[in-house]
Write a structure and sequence with these properties.
17 strands; mainly beta; 2 helices; 6% helix
């Protein structure tokens, strides 16, 4: 019976496609962390090279200033990623031309005191997310997590601050985009505990907030459709949880 039940769940689960949610994204765009279906799987017609060295199958290479662990995203003819300069205490979003590697813009997002961090982590570990109209990104420093929106030319549009963030090993959440919301997980061991927060993508207004345990965690939320119902899933803090993406209400945990 256990095997049959597990098999049934697999049959009834499906992804919430990027094109369904964001018609401005192209079929080949990789608009956020782990790609269009949040599973790291590229379209069946993708033909990336499977072998390379310093020269073979390398179209171009550029040196990235600073240090960051975010995954690059690709939307249209542009590549977006984050970086941080730990000497100057600055955090940036970078934009490159996909075909040439030319730097199009470098936007300074924050400058100031950095928090405690694991030396193997970076201060730019969350990936940029893009809905085809704007970019969304989160950084941490100075006991805060700042989530911001930029236009596609690198101009900052709004910023939301989560205060009281207590770093354990740093921060690395990538925003989840869904129906006009940028949804950010801010798990931490601060006095106020963690939170899952939905922000209006146009204004940065907080639309809903759901409390999370007072425990460190470094997960990014993902969304899947189960039995015809869209659900946000998060792991960590000693539990697996499902949330309603429109309200933040806990479905189960």
């Amino acid at each position: 019976m256990k095997i049959k039940a597990a098999f049934l769940v697999v049959l009834l689960a499906s992804v919430v496609s990027a094109q369904e949610r964001f018609p401005n994204l192209g079929d080949s765009d990789w608009g956020w962390w782990r790609g269009p279906n949040h599973n790291g799987v590229a379209p069946a017609n993708a033909r990336p090279p499977v072998s390379w060295d310093n020269e073979t199958n390398v179209k171009w290479k550029v040196e990235i200033p600073g240090r960051g662990h975010s995954s690059p995203i690709v939307v249209g003819d542009r590549i977006y990623l984050t970086t941080a300069d730990e000497t100057k205490k600055t955090q940036h979003v970078l934009c490159y031309e996909k075909s040439t590697g030319e730097l199009i813009w470098n936007t300074l997002m924050h400058q100031g005191e950095f928090d405690h961090n694991n030396k193997k982590n970076s201060f730019a570990s969350g990936s940029v997310s893009c809905d085809g109209e704007r970019l969304y990104v989160s950084f941490f420093r100075d006991l805060k997590v700042m989530t911001s929106a930029l236009d596609l030319d690198g101009q900052k549009l709004w910023e939301h601050n989560f205060d009281g963030f207590k770093s354990h090993q740093g921060f690395g959440c990538s925003p989840l985009l869904y129906k006009g919301m940028a949804i950010v997980a801010i798990d931490n061991k601060g006095a106020g505990g963690g939170a899952l927060i939905a922000l209006d993508t146009k204004t940065g207004e907080e639309l809903w907030r759901t409390s999370r345990p007072q425990l460190p965690n470094h997960v990014s939320p993902v969304i899947y459709r189960i039995n015809g119902k869209d659900q946000i899933f998060m792991a960590g803090c000693n539990l697996i949880a499902s949330y309603d993406p429109m309200t933040g209400k806990v479905n189960w945990q």
